[in-house]
Specification:
The protein is built from nine helices and eight strands. It is of the alpha/beta class and about 220 residues long. Bound molecules: pyridoxal-5'-phosphate (PLP). Pyridoxal-5'-phosphate binds near residues 194, 211, 212 and 213.
Length: about 220
């Protein structure tokens, strides 16, 4: 199967209001262009060093999503062009994004990464911490940052019931912090689901799936 076949196959199964992010980390510009020529415009990368040369080389109407842990000293490089940062996991990082975004007068959309997996290694806020950050944002602390929603990664396990339970928990929290819907910021995006678990994620209310190996092949 070609990259474009893989994209078509996934798109057929995606509800219309779910956005597909093609995760292109470790993949070449040629492979990204194959996906681009099949109509794909949203791409996800997890390392700034890898994202910058791809941004330079590839068409400017690509929407770049940063999905990996971001260090504060790299924020200034991505703020001029990034479409959405999925992996906000500290208040410190928000402060730096707010500062760098202010310098170039550009609003930055972000998702708060919530720790839902039963694994030590995954980054993210607890729901209590995220609640606090959303309040700070609603009180105007980060004027150049817009919290668009939440992101989460389920445990890497064969146990589909566990994966489903983790996604369901995140959706529950998402629905809580979105209320009332008139509040600012409006939380509209729930980024959950990767190659191994996106079907479950969609059943549990995902609005954005981040798929790498099922599109580009294994890394
Ligand atoms: C690599 C990565 C993905 C995609 O993983 P696949 O299993 O290849 O689909 C999704 N989200 C994040 C945060 C990643 O780092």
């Amino acid at each position: 199967m070609s990259i474009s076949d893989n994209i078509s196959k996934i798109k057929l199964q995606l509800p219309e209001d779910v956005t597909l992010i093609a995760v292109s980390k470790t993949k070449s510009s040629e492979e990204i262009l194959d996906a681009y020529n099949a109509g794909q415009r949203d791409f996800g990368e997890n390392r700034v060093q890898e994202l910058l040369p791809k941004y330079e080389a590839l068409p400017k109407d690509i929407r770049w999503h940063l999905i990996g842990h971001l260090q504060t000293n790299k924020v200034k490089y991505v703020v001029p062009f990034v479409h959405l940062i999925h992996s906000i996991d500290s208040e410190n990082l928000l402060e730096e994004i707010n500062k760098q975004a202010g310098k170039i007068n550009r609003g930055i959309s972000i998702l708060l990464q919530i720790h839902i997996a039963h694994e030590e290694s995954k980054f993210g806020f607890s729901t209590e911490e995220a609640d606090k950050v959303i309040q700070l944002c609603r009180n105007g602390k980060f004027k150049n940052v817009r919290i668009d929603g939440l992101m989460g990664m389920a445990t890497n396990t064969e146990d589909q019931t566990q994966v489903r339970t983790e996604f369901r928990g995140l959706k529950h929290f998402f629905d809580q912090v979105r209320q009332p819907e008139t509040l600012n910021p409006k939380l509209v995006t729930l980024s959950m689901g990767m190659s191994s678990d996106w079907e479950i994620a969609i059943q549990e209310g995902s609005t954005m799936v981040r798929i790498g190996s099922s599109i580009f092949g294994s890394r």
